[in-house]
Amino acid sequence: MAIAGKTVLVTGAGAGIGAALAVEAAGGGAAAVVAVDIDAAGAEATAAAVRERGVAAVAAGVDVADAAAVRALVAEVRAEHGPIGAVFSNAGVAVGLGLHAPMSLWEKAWAVNVRAHVHLAQAVLPGMIRDGGGHFMITASAAGLLGLPGDAPYAVTKQAAVGLAEWLACAYARHGIKVSALCPLGVRTGLLMPAVAAGHPAGLAVAELGPILEPAEVAACAVAGLADGRFLVLPHPEVAELYAKKAADPDAWIHTHASTR
């Protein structure tokens, strides 16, 4: 496994996919797991779950949209645990509004869904280069490949996250660094399920396209994708077919989805 014996850092680890990634990393033989979340209590609960599996774990209550805080976190982790072998840059937010969402919400989406990945990459990749390589996975979304009706800030920033992952993969391959984009469709988390229950267009669109997976299923797929060195990691196989269909005929894709966007 790509993470066996390595220090693994997971952001957005307080719940949902991030918590599942931390636990899956422990099961994959990680030497230590660093659970990071703006919700310090959630991060500590995840770290405790990792320790129950016999793996060293620490929690950090950090806002990953704060570049200085991210730099300090990475420096501290390296000082205490040595090289960081794998990173799951997983923090994300949804908005649930269209074009006219308040600028404050557009800014929050950019800050967490894009710039937080930039901050973490800037902080961790130089050390990975010195260490001879590593793995960096960005949790984007199937929305980053297919779009998403009903949530313009989310759809736009998740597409940017995929673009960032692709750029990093190309730029850092020569340094032995593997970069991946994790693009799940529906996952049973606090981000999606309230939207489904409320009948929100974004939640319904996701639920209609494929099954809603458990976070543990997505985490298992993510760790396997990391080990295989895949760029696009797709827990829902149907996303690959939809993405190919969209790429083959963008005009038809827009026409088909125009009434819901």
TrEMBL record:
Pfam families: adh_short. The keyword Transferase does not apply. Signal peptide: none annotated. Keywords: Oxidoreductase. PROSITE patterns: ADH_SHORT (PS00061). It comes from the Bacteria. InterPro entries: NAD(P)-bd_dom_sf (IPR036291), Sc_DH/Rdtase_CS (IPR020904), SDR_fam (IPR002347). The keyword Oxidoreductase applies. GO terms for molecular function: oxidoreductase activity, acting on the CH-OH group of donors, NAD or NADP as acceptor. Transmembrane segments: none annotated. Belongs to the short-chain dehydrogenases/reductases (SDR) family. This is Dehydrogenase. It comes from Actinokineospora fastidiosa.
